Amino acid sequence: MAKNDKTEKTGQFASELTPRSQDFSRWYLDVVRRAELADYTQVKGCMAIRPYGFAIWELMQQELDRRIKASGHVNAYFPLFIPNSLLTKEAEHVQGFSPQVAYVTHAGGEELEEKLVVRPTSEAIIGTKYADWIQSWRDLPVLINQWANVVRWEKKTFPFLRTTEFLWQEGHTAHETEAEAEEETLKILDMYADVCESVLAMPVLKGMKSQSEKFAGAARTYSIEALMGDGRALQAGTSHNLGQNFAKAFDVKFQGRDKSVQYVWGTSWGVTTRLVGAVIMVHGDDSGLVLPPKIAPFQVVILPIGRDNWRETVLPTALAIKQQLVDAGVRVTLDDRDERPGWKFAEWELRGVPLRLEIGPKDIEKSQVLIARRDTREKIGVPMDAIVGRVRELLDDVQTSMLRKALAFRDEHTQRTTSYDEFKQFLEGRPGFVLAPWCGTAECEAQIKADTQATIRNIPMGALSSPGQGGTCVRCDNPAQYEVRFAKSY
Amino acid sequence: MAKNDKTEKTGQFASELTPRSQDFSRWYLDVVRRAELADYTQVKGCMAIRPYGFAIWELMQQELDRRIKASGHVNAYFPLFIPNSLLTKEAEHVQGFSPQVAYVTHAGGEELEEKLVVRPTSEAIIGTKYADWIQSWRDLPVLINQWANVVRWEKKTFPFLRTTEFLWQEGHTAHETEAEAEEETLKILDMYADVCESVLAMPVLKGMKSQSEKFAGAARTYSIEALMGDGRALQAGTSHNLGQNFAKAFDVKFQGRDKSVQYVWGTSWGVTTRLVGAVIMVHGDDSGLVLPPKIAPFQVVILPIGRDNWRETVLPTALAIKQQLVDAGVRVTLDDRDERPGWKFAEWELRGVPLRLEIGPKDIEKSQVLIARRDTREKIGVPMDAIVGRVRELLDDVQTSMLRKALAFRDEHTQRTTSYDEFKQFLEGRPGFVLAPWCGTAECEAQIKADTQATIRNIPMGALSSPGQGGTCVRCDNPAQYEVRFAKSY
Q: In this structure, is the dihedral angle defined by the CA atoms of residues B274, B275, B278 and B283, taken in order, positive or negative?
C-alpha cells in the first residue's frame, strides 16, 4: 500500500485524513491505515498489526513487563485451547463468555471427541493447573502472568479497540487470604494507571465496575477509564478480585497454617492491544498520530534539507547527528529518501514522531539545527553542540505536556449534576464524563442506558470507601449509594 | 506439585530421577517435571510452560530478537486464523500441512460459512498481506518477523520437542531477486547457528534438507542439526528459500526497476520452544538440568549454611553478596528457606543453576566463600572481596567449557563409512551422526530409513558447493552425489 499511496499525493498527504471534527471514527480508521499501524485481513474482525503499530505495542509491553516482574510476578504460558467442559465449570463465567467463543471441532483429520474452546481468557485452564501445583500455604502466593493471544467472537469490530483476536497480558494470582487478593487487585490497578499516565501520557480514572459490568465470574472488577478525543470513554484495563469463585469451580485448595483445608483467593487482570487504539484517540490530531516519546518507535526523525547536492553538503552532518543520538540511547531515524521536504514533513507528522530535526546548508553555516515539536508544532533553533541534551529535555517536555493537555481536555469534558433532565441534556452528543448520584440498582443503571446510551464507567475509589453520602439517585430519587462516572463508551 | 514432592524426599531429591543410561526419555520427562519446566494439561499434546521453563525461553527470545532486529528485521503480528481456502492455494503446502491442522468450525454461536485453520505456520496469511503491501521494487525487501503460537496436530507428542501447540518466531521476507532471497536464507541459518553455539552452548551442523524432508512449499530448506545426549539428532531450526512458490500462489508481485511486473522471491525461517528441550538433552546429567549461564534464569544461587542461628550469623553477609551481584547485572537468587543444605544442593543442581555460592560461619571468619560449578562440580574458594570478578570469569568459563564438552561428545559420536554393512552396524543403538555417500535419490533415502530408522539430517554446506566428488552411494552403488549426515532423530 505504501507506494501507490505515496505516488497519488503531492504534498497533501496529511490533508487526506478525514478531519476529526467531521467524523472521528473515519479519522481514526484513516490514521490506522495511513500510518501503517494495522490492516484488515480476510478473517472477519482479525487485523494484521503492521511493524509500526507493533513497535508501539512492544514498547508498551516492555514497560508493563518490567513492572510486572519488579512486583514479584513471573511469566509462564498456558495452552490456547480449553476443553469445553472446563469452561463450563464456573457458572457466571460460561454464561458471560459462551456466546463469544470459537470452537475447534476437527483436528488431525478427525472430529474431536470433545470440542475445544479457543481461549477467550485463561482462568479455566490456569485454575486446573493451580489445583495441581498448590498444596500448602507455603506455595502461596502464586503470581503468574502470561502474554498471549485470545479470541472473542465480536459482532462489531474496530481496529485495536475491539478485534476478534487480540494480544494481551493476563495475570492470574492465588493468595492465602481475601485481604491479600484485594491488595493484589488494587496494586495492579495502580500499576496500570501508572503505565497509562507516565508512559502513554493518558490520564485514567480508577474505580470499581458495577455488578452488571463486572467480569463474568469475578467478585469485583476494578477498571481504569480514559477519555478519548471525541468525548467517549474507553475501558483501558481491568483488575478482578475473583474471590473464591474459580478456586471452588476448579478445586484449588491448600492446607492453611492451622492445618485446615481452604480454597485460595484469586485475582486476574489484563490490558490489551486496545491501548494502541487509546493512544491514537487520546493524542491524535487532524495531521495524524501524536506519540508520547516513551512509546514512539522513533523519537526523532532527522530530515536533511537542501538543493540537489544535499547528499554531499548536508547528509554527512545529518548522519553524524544521528550517530550522536543513537549513542545517547535516543530512538532515531534519518529520512534520506528523494522526496520533497513538504511530503516528508507530512508523512512523519502522520506517524506522530515527537521531534523533527531539520538540517540544511544554512543551518550548517550557522552551526545549528531546527527542531519541531509534533505536539505543539513549536520550532526551536538548537546549537549543533547542544543537540543531545536539548533533545532529551524536549522529549521529557513533550511527554509531560502531552499528559497535561490530555488532563485539561478531560477536566473540560467532565460535568456533574443531580438533575436527570440536565443529565440527559449533558449526554446529548459526546460530552465526556458526567458524575451523578446513583442508587446502586441495576434497574436504574439499565434505564439510564436506555435513555442516554451512557453506562456507569466506574464507581470512584473515594466513593467506595464512604458510600451513602446523602442525596438521591439522579434517576429514581431513592437514596444515592455513590456518585458514579457515566459516559458513552467504546 | 512442589510441596508434596518436597516432603516426600529426605535429601535424595536428585536420585529420584531415572538415570540417563537406564532410560533417556524417562530421564528427560523426570527433569521436565521435577525442575518445574513444564506440565501436562487436559488438552492432548498441549503443555503448560511453567515459570522456570518460560524464563529460559524468554532469555532465548531476547538473544534472538536482538539479532533479528539488528539485522534489519521488524516484528509484526498476523492473525491466528487462516481461511481454509487460503491454505489450499499452494499445492505442496496444503498437502504437507492439511493432515496436521485444527479447524474452527463454529464461533459466536453459529456455524461458520468457511472453516478456519488455526495457523500451523503463516506463509498463507502473510502472503495475502504482502500482495497488498508490495507494489514496487522500492518496497523491497520486506523483512518481517513475528513471535507467535502455532498448532500442528501431532500423533505423538513430547514436552518441548513436539507439542500440539508451540511457541516460535517465524520470519517472512520478500526480495527483488533470487540471489537476495538465498543470501537471506543463509544469513538467518548462520544467525541461528550462532545463537545455538554462543548462547545455548549447543554445537550445530548446518546443511540442506533433502527434497523429501524440505518444508512443504519451499524450494530449498536449510537446517541446523544438534546431537542430543542419547545419540539422537534434533533439528534445531530451519530456514527456507521459498523461491517464487508462495508469491505465485498469493500473487505477490512488484514492478521491477525495468518496469516489468515480477513475482517476489521469498524466505521463511523459524525456531521454536523445542530449543528448551534441546538444551535439557544436550547438557543435562543424572542430577538434572545443566544450564548455560546465558540462558540460566538464575546464574548463581547463594546458599547460607550454618547452625540454627544462621539467620543472624550468615544471612546479612549473604544478602550483601547478593546485592553486589545484582548490581553487577548477575541473575542471582538466595535460598533462605529452612531446609537442610543437602536437600537445597540437590534441588538447585536439578534446576541446573551454573554456580552455587556457599557461605557459612567459618567462611565469614576466613573472609571467603565457596563456589561450586554445576557443570564440572569443581569447588573453588573465593576471597570475599573478589566475588564479583570471579563469578563473571566463572560464568564465562562455564559457558565456553559447556560448548567444548558438547562438541567433544559430538565428535566422539560421529562416524564415517562407505560400506552399507558397516553403516547398518553403526546405526544399531544410537550412535550419533554417520557420514556416508548418497546417490541423491529419494528411493535410497527411503530404503535406508526402512533398514535403519536413520534419516538424512542434512547435506553439509561444503558438499553442496562441490557435488559428485566421486565414490558410490552407501546403499545402491550408483555414483554418489554428496556425502551426507545420517542419524536417528527426534
A: negative
Residue B15: predicted pLDDT: 53
Residues 108-137 of A with CB under 8 A from B: 108-109, 115-116, 118, 125, 128-129, 132-133, 135-136
User: Residue B167: which residues within 8 A CB-CB, separation 6 or more?
Assistant: A77, B49, B57, B147, B148, B149, B272, B273
A48 close to B (CB below 8 A): yes
The residue of chain A with its CA nearest to that of B144 is A51
Task: Sketch the domain layout of chain B as residue ranges.
Answer: 2-283, 298-398, 414-487
Percent of chain B with pLDDT over 70: 97
pLDDT range class, residue B26, cuts 50, 70, 90:
very high
Q: pLDDT under 50 in chain A at which residues?
A: 1-14
**The predicted structure's pLDDT at residue B11:** 42
Tell me if A236 sits within 8 A of A276, measured CB to CB: no
Residue B255 C-alpha cell reads as: 514492478
Chain-chain contact of B43 with A81 (C-beta, under 8 angstroms): yes
CB pairs under 8 A between A and B: 177
* A74 or B471, higher pLDDT: A74
**Cβ atoms B292, B398 nearer than 8 A:** yes
CA distance B137 to chain A (A): 10
Sign of torsion over alpha carbons A81, A163, A432, A204: positive
Region B223-247 average pLDDT: 97
| CATH code linked to domain A414-487 | 3.30.110.30
% residues pLDDT > 70 (chain A): 97
User: DSSP for A188-218?
Assistant: HHHHHHHIIIIIS----EEEEPPGGGS-TT-
Mutate to test the interface with B, among A5, A6, A43, A331 (most CBs of B within 10 A): A43
Give the residue-averaged pLDDT of B469-487: 92
Q: What is the pLDDT of residue A103?
A: 97
User: What is the ipTM metric for this complex?
Assistant: 0.95
Q: Which of A63, A55, A16, A61 is nearest to A37 (CA)?
A: A55
For B128-148, what is each residue's pLDDT tens digit? 999 999 999 999 999 999 999
Does the pLDDT of residue B49 top 60, yes or no? yes
Superfamily grouping for domain A293-406: Anticodon-binding domain (3.40.50.800)
Nearest to B204 by CA among B488, B461, B464, B482: B461
CATH superfamily of A18-283: Bira Bifunctional Protein; Domain 2 (3.30.930.10)
Residue whose grid cell is 516432603? B7
Q: Do the chains contact at B104 and A107, CB–CB below 8 Å? A: no
CATH of the domain spanning B2-283, picked from 1.10.3720.10, 3.40.50.720, 3.90.190.20, 3.30.930.10? 3.30.930.10
pLDDT one-digit tens code per residue, B112-121: 999 999 999 9
Is B334 in a helix, a strand, or coil? strand
Question: Which residues fall within 8 angstroms of residue A141, CB to CB, at 6 or more apart?
Answer: A173, A174, A175, A176, A180, A184
Within a 13 Å sphere around the CA of A447, how many CA atoms are in the beta-carbon half? 13
Q: Is the dihedral of CA B339, B281, B153, B78 positive or negative?
A: positive
**Taking residues B459-478, what's their average pLDDT?**
88
pTM: 0.95
Mean pLDDT (chain B, rounded): 94
- Res B468 pLDDT > 90: no
- CATH among 3.40.50.10490, 3.40.630.30, 3.40.50.800, 2.60.120.10 for B298-398: 3.40.50.800
Query: Are A41 and B100 within 8 A, CB to CB?
Result: no
Nearest by Cα to B161 from B45, B289, B65, B240: B45
Residue A4: the pLDDT is 38
Whether the Cβ atoms of residue B279 and residue B56 lie closer than 8 Å to each other:
yes
Task: Tell me if B76 and A116 make a contact (CB, 8 A cut-off).
Answer: no
